[in-house]
Amino acid sequence: MADIATGPGPFAARRFTIEEYHRMAEAGILSPAERVELIRGAVREMSPKNRAHVIASTRVFALLLKKLDGRATVYVEAPLRLESLDSEPEPDVMVCSNVDVEAYGTEATTPLLIVEVADSSLRRDLGDKAPLYAEAQIPEYWVVNLVDRVLVVFREPRDGNYSSRSTMELSGRVAPEAWPDLEVEVAALFPNESLDAE
User: Fold this and answer.
1) Could you tell me which of 153, 124, 128 has the C-alpha nearest to residue 139?
2) 128-148, pLDDT tens digit by residue?
3) Of 9, 18, 40, 42, which is the most exposed, with the fewest CB atoms less than 10 Å away?
4) How many whole angstroms separate alpha carbon 129 and alpha carbon 66?
5) Neighbour-count burial of 24, counting CB atoms closer than 10 A to its CB (0-12 exposed, 13-18 middle, 19+ buried)
């Protein structure tokens, strides 16, 4: 994976705003087939998805969609505009407090939980995106770690980082802080172990 805004030459330090990022897509500089996202002004290629990633993302989305029906809006691979951070990541799953779909993208839409499914993207999801989401004051961030088959739960954003980080085994149960009655088995978020190597 490479950052389009880095590398040798006069544009090595070039960073883009969200508006410039959108204009690049409109002008065809970024094609619809390219899987990219804007992180702190850098256009980054997103990791290719294997079967395990697709299955885990689908499980997380379906589980949260069913359990939060009528209580929140659950998005899959939707861009999250973080204007002050020159970022527009596309988390695998995002849960917002505003159930009005038409309000998506406005200030009224407040993500209360973001979930990333990580295999080849594990370093970025744990190292780059955790502080990004903390700076954006996202109250809770989960990383479904397919490499180690654990769920990493980040909470309590403070001073650009999460002050709480816990690792949960497959045998555990977890509930989002915003919906403490929504307790799920950690294992339900993961594909069968045989798919992780595919």
Assistant:
1) 153
2) 999 999 999 999 999 999 999
3) 9
4) 26
5) middle
The enclosing H or E element of 185 equals strand 184-185
Strand, coil or helix: what is 131?
Answer: helix
CB 57 within 8 A of CB 78: no
Write the CATH number of the domain with boundaries 49-195. Answer: 3.90.1570.10
- Contact (Cβ atoms closer than 8 angstroms) between residue 97 and residue 74: no
What are the residue boundaries of the structural domains of the chain, listed by start? 1-46, 49-195
- Residue 167, token pair as written in the block: 């690792």
Distances (CA, A) of 42 to 23, 99, 171, 178: 14, 31, 38, 31
Whole-angstrom Cα distance, residue 49 to residue 117? 10
Q: Which of 24-33, 109-118, 122-131 has the lowest mean pLDDT?
A: 24-33
Q: How far is CA 122 from the centre of its chain?
A: 11
Which ranges of 8-146 would DSSP assign to H, the alpha helix?
Answer: 18-26, 51-67, 122-127, 129-135
